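I can't quite decide. Please look over this sequence plus structure tokens:

:::
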Amino acid sequence: MGDVVRILGLDFSDRQPDKAVIEYLHSMGADITVEKKSIIIKASSLKGIEIDMNATPDALPAMAVVGAFAEGETRLVNVPQARTKETDRIRCMAEELKKLGVDVEELEDGLIVRHSKPKAAKLDGRSDHRIVMALSLAGMAIDEPCVIDTAEAMNVTFPDYVKLMTSIGADMTMEE
């Protein structure tokens, strides 16, 4: 994959709270440029921070993966409602990240994720689209293949996910 990704067609005037992920990543040191209808993300080193995720519980799985690659410790807190989504996303992400060798601690209302060197593993996406896509991000940063069961769950919200990711250089396939 390249060192620069441009994401087109974003509407920053909508009320979707998950666009706060851009702010989270920027606070972690990500090199992100926001333009009128796109964002440009350049490869950069990240540092762990504490993030109050109460307004963005759906972003917990992806930010947990980011935390595994950020220097230091990333605290994802004040998000107890993440336990009552399609799955208990706090528990599920802690369990799946541990399979990857990530140093993660489950809190009542979130996760503490420490910088780790994730390794390939067979993962369970728990039939939760956000967990599947988050785990796929971890897999892309590991040299050996990862397999994610129930990956078809991502079709709920993003049926072209694999196609899009491969178009920007990801080595990803969807098996029947």
Summary: The two ends are 25 Å apart (CA to CA).
